[in-house]
Amino acid sequence: MLNVRILAVAALVGSVAMGSMLVHANEPNAAAKELVEYRLEKWKTTHAEGDQGDKLVKTLKTLRCEVKVGSHGGHTDVNYRCPKWQQLALKSHNEAHQWESWLKKHGFETKHAH
Known about the structure:
Blueprint: E1 6-9, E2 25-26, E3 34-48, H1 51-62, E4 66-72, E5 75-90, H2 93-105, E6 109-113
Parallel strand pairs: 1-5
Antiparallel strand pairs: 1-2, 3-5, 3-6, 4-5
């Protein structure tokens, strides 16, 4: 088994749109039933405006990704990668699919186990 850190997500707030989710990293607990593994080996750049960039950066850092931020021309460039496999431990199948969708939308490779 991969030697990875496990995150338990305490809350999903908002939709699955870029940066609109609030993530809380905690130690895994018995209530976590679904696992989503993820990685992004190469750097990816996303353009964000306003507080969307801040939300995305916070989410990516909570997911233990490397993040670099730059601002120019009225928007924020968010560069990120997560070269080693990580895991999210989630309470429900629905949350797992929401996170898997969000991760894929942002360029991550995912695996979903029950």
